[in-house]
Automatic annotation (TrEMBL), chains A, B:
PROSITE patterns found in the cross-reference section: ADH_ZINC
Names of the cofactor(s): Zn(2+)
Any Pfam family the entry gives: ADH_zinc_N
GO MF entries: oxidoreductase activity; zinc ion binding
Protein name: Threonine dehydrogenase-like Zn-dependent dehydrogenase
Length: 345, 345
């Protein structure tokens, strides 16, 4: 089959690789209907040291079950399924607590022996625990929205849940990428009445306003902070959903959070240390939370509104490529020409 | 009257100063029955640059109302009262949210025009909002326990509340000072079944075991972390209550917290930056919370058990000094000869 391999920064290729096969009785093999490129895929695209062997890439896909192992009991060939970006048994104590990203027997795509989502097919370990069936046909127009449940919608929702967003909390979302926009949609779902979206790309913040943002702030740094404070009577917001991952976004979060508030990070931090002392987090009793989203925990909850068309998170996809065009898709996202690229193998 | 003035690191003196007087109609003047020396008073005792004018010091006291301003309606001369370590109106939005340390009109003892607790008397601003009446006599044997509601008991409780301690969470308390021991008592109050106390001073950890700790770990650093992991099946605890404030304690907290868990800090951080990146906080979805405790929010809740003798937090005081002996009290706490020093003016 064809699969995407990254060999180092800027070096993404689509190549022939062996077809995935069942290795464990708990495995399934899933043919990919739709995959996509994630903002976090751009980190290795920027930083990965060159390696001769390369690594498969991609961690978001919806597909059709092709084969199941003898121990798989909840799925059958032909089922359309959503794959979360981490695979998990869904039964261990961490999974029962909703922290599937720390599953005792789970793991992440592109680990040794497990392929990536930007491919024609994928071997899925722990298929019963990992995959969520979607009652749609292979050609459903809902596929792009269902695909957001693989990562970005669940990730935005995780940011909002960990921040404790509710009808009484004001919200700032930092970042107008797909996760930031999904954080807006999630804050809206949880009832927030003021949702300020900080982002520089008008087409994206316009979509954010449609998803439920009440204000868009294009300014960054001190100027952006002043704008948010102006919109909140000087106080900042109860919650800040940080969907970027760079230090500038962390500093911006400190600047716009209200005393007693929460900074919830889902942008993968590209820094090791950050200010957490008396003047920043401690004195005003700010909580710092977040992490990789256990999206598996949220799929059943978010799925009905997607199936009923009440929300259309698939609107974050503004470009579609074939598998062989994936390298061009990376370039388009890296150049900020595309918000999020859908892949149709 | 006599009051304690700090002139710089290691330089604490008791001197004659003008008696406090009512300055605002919302003020009260309170004669101090009992005050004490706080672990956090040791920070200026170590670091304060020498100043010729000095500053009053002390932020914990119980006393008797001597005089009230014309707008004070809930107190009368003769009332025995508990003073939280921050004064507050108890009516603004932050106070109503339980964040009295961020009160819009409040402040902290030893600010200009407001004295400190290690004195014969104190001018109390916003007396109706700040002071909590205790239905006891001036010579009550409960005074030491009531005094802990000024700071250390409420601070330990804040750590536990912000961490979300409940009957299903395991707890590590880092630090066997008065706040650490009060964090143990608080975790016990909230129903935690495993409470591991990390501290090196056997007399203190023994008191911690009486307060409800299930295990005491004397080792520090990697050795201490290994011990806590051994006691928790390798996982660490759901919550870590950090009552020290040094970087070593932060690192220890990272080492003993379970994935998805919470590090709740109430030790005033003596550092500006700390690890918060993927391998430390983000990857395992660790939450970092805490700050100066809004103890005013907790006094009414914690008071009944103290009055009924169900808990005896006053046992943290292991030495009593007169006001003129306060400098010796600082030395005893700094030398770790005393756990916490009670002051009887």
């Amino acid at each position: 089959m064809r699969a995407t391999i990254i060999y180092g920064a800027g070096d993404v290729r689509v190549e022939n690789v062996p077809d995935p096969v069942l290795q464990q009785p708990t495995d399934a093999v899933v043919r990919v209907l739709r995959a996509c490129i994630c903002g976090s895929d751009l980190h290795p695209y920027h930083n990965m040291p060159a390696t001769p062997e390369g690594s498969t890439i991609g961690h978001e896909f919806v597909g059709v079950v092709e084969e199941i192992g003898s121990d798989v009991s909840t799925l059958k060939p032909g089922d359309v399924v959503i794959a979360p970006f981490a695979w998990s048994d869904n039964t261990c104590d961490f999974c029962r607590e909703g922290l599937h990203t720390s599953c005792r027997t789970g793991g992440f795509w592109n680990a040794p022996g497990v392929g990536g989502g930007q491919a024609e097919a994928v071997r899925v370990p722990l298929a019963d625990g990992t995959l969520v069936k979607a009652p749609v046909a292979e050609d459903s127009p809902l596929l792009p929205s269902l695909l957001t449940l693989s990562d970005v919608y669940g990730t935005g929702y995780h940011a909002a849940i960990k921040a404790g967003v509710n009808p009484r909390t004001t919200v700032t979302v930092i970042g107008d990428g797909a996760v930031g926009l999904m954080a807006v949609l999630s804050a809206k779902r949880l009832g927030a009445e003021q949702i300020i979206l900080m982002g520089r790309h008008k087409a994206r913040t316009d979509l954010g306003l449609e998803f439920g943002a009440t204000d868009a702030v294009a300014e960054r740094g001190e100027e952006g902070i002043a704008k948010v404070r102006e919109l909140t009577g000087g106080d900042g917001t109860h919650t800040v959903l940080e969907a970027v991952g760079y230090m500038e976004a962390y500093d911006q979060a400190l600047g716009v959070v209200r005393p007693g508030g929460v900074i919830s990070r889902v942008g993968v931090p590209q820094y090791a240390d950050a200010p957490v002392g008396f003047p920043t987090l401690f004195g005003p009793n700010i909580t710092l939370t977040g992490g990789p989203a256990p999206v598996r925990a949220y799929i059943e909850e978010l799925l009905p509104d997607v199936l009923e068309g009440k929300v259309d998170p698939g609107r974050v996809f503004d470009r579609t490529v074939s598998l062989d065009e994936v390298p061009a898709g990376y370039k388009a996202m890296d150049d900020r020409e595309a918000l999020k690229v859908l892949v149709r193998p």
